[in-house]
Each structure stands twice: as structure tokens, then as C-alpha cells.
Automatic annotation (TrEMBL):
Domain of life (superkingdom): Eukaryota
Family: Belongs to the mitochondrial carrier (TC 2.A.29) family.
Topology in the lipid bilayer: Multi-pass membrane protein
SUPFAM superfamilies: Mitochondrial carrier (SSF103506)
Solcar repeats: 61-149
Xref: InterPro entries: MCP_dom_sf, MCP_transmembrane
GO biological process, one term: positive regulation of apoptotic process
Protein name according to UniProt: MTCH1 protein
Subcellular location: Mitochondrion outer membrane
Length: 249
């Protein structure tokens, strides 16, 4: 964390650490409002708490129902807030080329609509949604099975352990789904006119699948360089083995 933060402060001052903050705040606000609206529009039926192993089927049904409802809220909120996320990402990566193409939320909306149309606001949406869906199902199902089969009801601290299981599973699963978020963010700035989204900093990907699997065809993908997890650690910096950018033929 100290490496990029120090570098940004040296170049842009402390203000540079807050690039893209306004659209990010609006995006988070829209996401929260949307989740609340969807929750009211599609209320989840109350189900009794089940922890007895004799009621595994009932308990699993409860988890599936809750996860499906949570998935609906997350997908809708992601759809609504993603355009602001795209603007936020592009405001951030302007640091690389010292551009001022996206100087405000409204001007950015007008520029994206003019240059890319409506679809320009939703680049990178699919991998983000896939990452969210996979995260929710894996996290909730793993927590359920661990609480059901690994934690004994006779254990005095069983309830305490169960309360932390989902949190721990969330950390573990987030490491597996991180590549989806990374690819989604790369697509948000890909080939948008900013230096960070163009060669030699990054190839011009045709789609998020192209971004993910390009290595099998042209050796330009993220995966062979171990970059699918770059930025995933709060404590350590993951750098490419040979270079700080993508190799270009």
C-alpha cells in the first residue's frame, strides 16, 4: 500500500489519492438505495432459524432462498451503479498518462455517451456480476455446510463459531473471485482513449473473455504472468515477473 500511495502523493500531492472519489460515492449511494428498493419490492419470506442436522434439507432450502434473494439485489444494484464505477475507474487511471479527459461526473457522462454510446457505461459489467454471483453462492453454501457438518451443536462455543464462519469464508472466496473484478476493471478502461488502456500499457481487448484467455493464443494474457491477482493484497505489491506492463508483439 505504501508504494503506490507514496508515489501518487509525490506526483499529485495528497489530493491525488482521492481521484474518482465523487463518482465512487455516487455509485455506492445508488447501490445502497437500489438494494433497499429491491428488498422492499421483493420481500424475503421469514423462515425459522434451523441449526439441527435433522433439518438439513430445510436449512439448505433456507440458504438457497436467502442467497437467491441476495443475488437479485446485488445484480440489480450492480447494474444501476456500474456506469458510475466506470467513470470512477477512468478518473483514477488518468494518473498514468496525466490526462484530464474525465474531469467531472456530468462531463464524463456526456463524453462516454458521445464516444461509446449507452454500452460504454456497461463495459466490464459481466465479469463483475459473475464475480458477485459466484462469491455469494460459494460463500453462503460453504458457510452452511461447515456450520452443519463441522460444528457440533453440543460444543459450548458453537453459536460463536457459526457467527464468524461466513466472514472467514468471505475472505477465502474473495481471493478466488478477485480475477473477475480485476478483469472487469481492466475492461472499464480498455481502449477508452486513455494511455493506461492502450498499448504499451495494455492490449486492446475485444471482450472480457479475450482479456482473460488471450494467453492461450498470443501469450498476452494476465494469467501466465500471475497478474490476475495483482492488487488483491493490502499489504504486498504483486509486480510482473519481467516487466511492469503487458508484453506487446
Amino acid at each position: 500500500f505504501s508504494y503506490p500511495a507514496r508515489h501518487i502523493v509525490e506526483v499529485d500531492g495528497k489530493r491525488g489519492l482521492f481521484r474518482g472519489l465523487t463518482p465512487r460515492l455516487i455509485s455506492s449511494t445508488l447501490s445502497t438505495i437500489t438494494r433497499g428498493s429491491v428488498k422492499k419490492a421483493f420481500p424475503l419470506e421469514d423462515m425459522e432459524h434451523v441449526s439441527n442436522k435433522d433439518d438439513v434439507k430445510t436449512s439448505l432450502r433456507k440458504v438457497v432462498t436467502e442467497t437467491s434473494h441476495e443475488m437479485l439485489m446485488q445484480c440489480v444494484s450492480r447494474l444501476v451503479s456500474h456506469p458510475l464505477h466506470v467513470i470512477s475507474m477512468r478518473c483514477m487511471v488518468q494518473f498514468v498518462g496525466r490526462e484530464v479527459k474525465y474531469s467531472g461526473v456530468f462531463s464524463a457522462i456526456g463524453r462516454i455517451f458521445k464516444e461509446e454510446g449507452i454500452l460504454g457505461f456497461f463495459v466490464g459489467l459481466v465479469p463483475h456480476i459473475l464475480g458477485d454471483v459466484i462469491f455469494l453462492w460459494c460463500c453462503n453454501l460453504l458457510a452452511h455446510f461447515i456450520n452443519t457438518y463441522a460444528v457440533d451443536d453440543n460444543f459450548s462455543q458453537a453459536s460463536v463459531i457459526r457467527s464468524y464462519t461466513k466472514f472467514v469464508m468471505g475472505i477465502a472466496v474473495s481471493m478466488l473471485t478477485y480475477p473477475f473484478l480485476l478483469v472487469g476493471d481492466l475492461m472499464a478502461v480498455n481502449n477508452c482513449g486513455l494511455r493506461a488502456g492502450l498499448p504499451p500499457y495494455a492490449p486492446a481487448f475485444a471482450s472480457w473473455i479475450h482479456c482473460w484467455s488471450l494467453a492461450a493464443l498470443t501469450l498476452l494474457s494476465l494469467s501466465p504472468q500471475g497478474q490476475l491477482f495483482r492488487g488483491s493484497s493490502l499489504l504486498f505489491r504483486r509486480a510482473p515477473m519481467s516487466a511492469a506492463c503487458f508484453p506487446i508483439d
